[in-house]
Amino acid sequence: xxxxxxxxxxxxxxxxxSQASSQPVxxxxxxNGVTHQITGTDQGLNIKGLxxxxxxxxxxxxxxxxxxxxxxxxxxxxxxxxxxxxIISVEVxxxxxxxxxxxxxxxxxxxxxxxxxxxxxxxxxIGQRAQWRGSIPFMVALDxxxxxxxxxxxxxxxxSLVELIRQLDAIK
Length: 172
Prior knowledge:
This is Thioredoxin. InterPro entries: Redoxin (IPR013740), Thioredoxin-like_sf (IPR036249), Thioredoxin_domain (IPR013766), Thioredoxin_ResA/DsbE_sf (IPR050553). With 172 residues, the protein is an alpha/beta fold. 37% of the residues lie in helices and 25% in strands. Strands 6-5-4-7-8 form a 5-stranded mixed β-sheet. Helix 2 (65-80) links the parallel strand 4 (54-60) and strand 5. It is globular, with a radius of gyration of 15 Å.
């Protein structure tokens, strides 16, 4: 039953996300000063340097209890699947880059962390493409080809994220 529900959600999210057809080039700069180039595609995103990886893009807030609860899960997943998974977290509750860098250090975040101020128009682009209305945590999952396969508002338990990785890894 879980697989059926997950499959239906994946199909619905993919159809919603793929409605827009423009292909903008965006840049985000993480808390370590690394700039990541992202190109919108018909079916998802091309993130330079992360080609061939499953990518979780999470929008979170530093004052959001479910967001805070998901950080240890994301840390564990990044460690366990470091060769096949990349996680990008964009903080949208107003921490500036310096504050977010300190926050990420305190939490031990071992994945790409971006403040909204350094996300350029990426946050708005995701909002439009995925019809995101600002609820957090909010996740967009891409398969190895950069195609959106899953969109979720609300926290997912670690076991569900592991299952999602397994399913995305099986897509050829």
